[in-house]
Amino acid sequence: MSRAETTATGPDDREQDRTEAAADTAAPAVRAPKAVWSLGLFRSELITVFRRWRTLALLAVLAGVPLLVGIAVRIETGNGGSLGGGRDNGNGPAFIEQVSNNGLFLTFASLAATLPFFLPMAIGVVAGDSVAGEASAGTLRYLLVAPAGRTRLLLVKYGSVLTFCLAATLVVTASALATGFALFPVGEVTLLSGTDISLSEGLLRALLIAVLVAASLVGIAALGLFVSTLTDSGISAMAATVGLLITVQIVDNIPQLHAFQPYLFPHYWLSFADILRDPVGWDGIAKNLGLQALYAAVFGSAAWARFTSRDVTA
Amino acid sequence: MGEPDTGAARPADEAVIETRGLAKQYRGTLAVDGIDLRVPRGSVFGFLGPNGSGKTTTIRMLMGLIEPTAGSARVLGRPMPRSSRTVLPRVGALIEGPALYGFLSGRDNLLRYDAADPTADPRTRSARVAAALDRVGLTAAAAKKAKAYSLGMKQRLGLASALLQPRELLVLDEPTNGLDPQGMREIRSLVRELAADGTTVFLSSHLLDEIEQVCTHAAVMARGRLITQGPVADLSAGARGRLAVTTPDPAEATRVLAAHGVSELTAVGPKVTGELPADPPDLADLNAALVAAGVRVRAFGLERATLEDAFVALTGEGFDVAG
Question: What sections of the sequence does the record tag as coiled-coil (chain B) (predicted)?
Fold first, then answer.
């Protein structure tokens, strides 16, 4: 329901933004000496996010994905015969065939499997709930009269959502590494371009990929935060953000709409596979990071413009 | 009522809250219609009005949560909402009931609200939280999850969050909602205690006797307008109070009292009431006169005009009629 609101208010707020963005660049000079004052609230925010049962459930689901994939591959290959090339989703590299040869590939396979939906959905839930959830619980008014400061609170909220992005990605990575090392042989890594690298370098690249995947979620995090400032209902903000994600993913897969696709936040998500080439292809990765930064700037400042000017009546 | 005027030592004309033509319009309806509110420093200020009269909207504007449509508000001498950052750390507030994180313990809730205040010293945080919990009598339940709290305990925790730091102004919106009579009494004595320390308390309520018991000043709102404000004594004593005599001889009593200048005499059953003259005679003489005239007096005394009388006189309606 708030999706309509988003499109309705989006352009206005972005208009407003351009003027207010100028004010924002001047503001850090005033805020800079107070950088320390945000740490206490940021810590408190992290505790609040990660102590929530829902957050832990999301992380548990994310941790379960590599485990399920690993077990499935193990069962299939255990029956004799390697995993056939029957899988061709045409969407990103097929890491999964390599998992039975090298457990490290379970990490890449799991990240590729969770990035299109599971990970961003989890981010959508946490980001969508960030402001709207506090508003519906009424705690927002007490934070604001504390006074948390609207800009400071929003920055802290975005910081905690980004931390969750990183935590979620690391949970998938860690679970995949553990499962992969437990169930499959591990050794030298054969890159997509055919060259071999040592296991330690392979691990390093896996970590780099995890960070890139986390960075790929910056855009949807900002989008979710913006949606969250539009409503006083945590549930509808979460639903709207996840709904937007699904819509964008669908649009990204309709060939007739290719003109828009380079501007959709998931468009370059699977570019992280280029890390597994020799030499590493940075082109797609740079495009992805640039797009995420653009989303963060646009929706971050839209969220700021909205949140600092709205009436808090809940 | 009977409270020492703790503001006496300070400049008498200093206002802690001052609004000029403060108004808020929601989609065409005026929730608050140009009010000029003035809360003197050191007072316990009762903010009265039926549900829906604009009290909470006014408080939200004072706390910088919503932007006024027109007019201005100054809190602790500074304009709101512009000076939120400097004003609000000196203000403790309970707005429209407590709001808590159910999955956090009572103590963790307070730690979070304290962390939100950039002026709060993190080194003294746990000590201040413990002191606030103790002050509202929640120490024993501090480790319990807030979702397991009763409404009264939530209310107390909300109050504790307003008391995390020494405050110059406390804004308490319906603080006794959901409390049992014992809890209400504790809150009242807490308010008196805070006021004695020099904190100005701005107390909104729709319970008249509550206001009458603790407040030095009061303002009355109805339908978004401020009907009156001033010291409670002035408000309730539009009259000096009525003389009431209970006697089995009402006719004779009426005659004697009229002879002594008591006006507007009415006799209902055994009870005779009337207005004392502008220059009232000694009540002991009056009583003696009654007895001398052979009137058997069972009870004799002044009935103080209640705030409720004043309210009904002002609005011409029962208090519980929503505006």
Answer: none
